[in-house]
Design brief:
Layout (H helix, E strand, L loop, with lengths): L2 H44 L4 H14 L4 H13 L6 H22 L5
Length: about 110
């Protein structure tokens, strides 16, 4: 392989790694913001005074396992413990709405460079 082709390949690999890192970082920030919104909503529904404590609990659950199912399971369990029955679909819809809002916030703060 020529020197020029090697440099081109290295530049593409570096760009790909940078892009991947940026996507991972964006997804992490979006999930944290989503969890904060969800925690605030659940705290209001449950009448909790310390929403930040619940936010920490959601983040702990989210970091223990990949995917949002563990967060949905925690919220459902906490609601049921307080005698509130919401469907999995309802909680999932709230989570997705908050994720959409969090992604929009992120994209406005950090617009993609074309």
């Amino acid at each position: 392989m020529s020197d020029k082709r090697l440099k081109s390949f290295a530049a593409k690999a570096s760009h790909s790694e940078s892009q991947h890192f940026a996507e991972v970082q964006r997804d992490f920030v979006v999930s944290i913001r989503r969890n904060r919104m969800l925690a605030q909503w659940v705290s209001e529904v449950l009448g909790l005074e310390k929403g930040n404590d619940y936010f920490s609990q959601l983040n702990d659950a989210d970091l223990r396992a990949a995917g949002s199912d563990v967060v949905v399971d925690k919220v459902l369990a906490d609601l049921r413990d307080r005698g509130l029955e919401l469907s999995r679909a309802d909680v999932k819809a709230k989570l997705e709405a908050f994720e959409h809002a969090a992604r929009g916030e992120y994209d406005r703060e950090y617009p993609a460079v074309p």
